[in-house]
Amino acid sequence: MKLKLMSVAALALSIGIAGMSPSALAQSSSGTTIQKNQTVQPLSTNVQPATVHNSKSTPAQNIPLSNTPSARSFAAATATDDTYGSNTSPDTAQLINTGTAVSGYIDQQGGARWYYVNVASTLKLTAFLSTGTSNVDYDLTLYRLNTTNSTLEQVSYSAKGAGQYELLSHLATSGYYFISVTSYQGADTSNPFTLFTTLSDSYDKSEPDDNPFFAKDRGTTAFTSQQNIDNLLDEDWSKITLNAQSKVNLRLNNTSANGEYIIQLWNANLQNLGSLKQNNNGQITLPAGTYYIQVYAPSTFDITTPYTLSVNYQSAAITRVAVSGITSDRGVQGFIDYGQGKKWRVGYNITVNGRAFDATGNPVSNGLVSINVTTKVGNHSVTIEGTTDSLGYFSVPMNIGAAAGQLTYRGPVSTHYYDIIPITFRSNGTLLNADISTLYHYAYSIN
Questions:
Q1: pLDDT tens digits, residue range 388-420?
Q2: Averaged over 189-206, what is the pLDDT?
Q3: Could you tell me which residues come within 8 angstroms of residue 209 by beta carbon, excluding any fewer than 6 positions away?
Q4: CA distance 187 to 191
């Protein structure tokens, strides 16, 4: 069997990278795509309790080398030996260059292939492994060479299930780093695995967090984090813990026009519970347990602009809202009576302020409130969703557009033309009780 070095162009055939130089892969935000075997799907509505993730045993923390060459001889070595099976141990590891892909085979369960890279300065090292088939379970481990005692010290690993890609990262100081591709279950001499590494010189303070095994533990409380995607392989993982069944609200804000990001939600067994695109609100009811939130870039990223991930927990189901006021542009706001009872008068741009309550009358924190208004002009419907604060208050801005002016009211000074339009409130699709149901939509007035 043979181990062959692949160009970045050849890598496009195996993991979908095309037209990208190694440096651009690490630092550019071009339209490159990487296929990671992830399906974008809506957040689940019915989620079963998950057992504690039965992860594999972690790789050996330290491996003594039996015949370790000096750093100088490492630098002189190259991966030119293209005979299969020559890199089955750390002592026969082959030198690879970051930004270049290698592919190889493992011919028996428990077998391994070893590689090493030279990192010249403090950089983030990312390694990605695609198995090429769903019939095997290969794991990825990263070690740093301790030249003092000729020992490989484990610094990162990725050990997901069969058919899944593996991804790890490490904030590497200068030195030699060994990478092990190991068969946990099965082997395949027909479909090669592909290993790709890259270096990033800019990254956020939460790194390394590129897989669930190194996810940032956010605990049991709400949190907001700002992070960057620093290369197209980069992923940011967070771990949350629920002590009881909870409604979990998720939102990923991204203001960059050059990057597009997605949230994936996983349970403790690394089963996918659904996805959420950037700049959208999502809510899912989850049983008590451990869960993982993954943020990644399917095709483009912007290292200069951080995204904001917000996660909080709704305290109860919302059943009722009370509107405290609606502000408006054009100087037409107010709670007035045009002859059809008192209603809030609105113009084009409005902000609906109120408070949400549960069935027992208690305010609901971190709840989603969706407001819908339908105007007479073209039967135009506008729906905007907001989130209540810790005391149950919400403030939702809306642009509802112009009124038709189908009705008239003769005031002491002028005649007002307006419409009566409906306003409704929902939470997770459920219609809520509210103290208002219609608005006066002001069009114009004539003296």
A1: 998 999 999 999 999 999 999 999 999 999 999
A2: 94
A3: 169, 215, 216, 235, 236, 237, 238
A4: 9
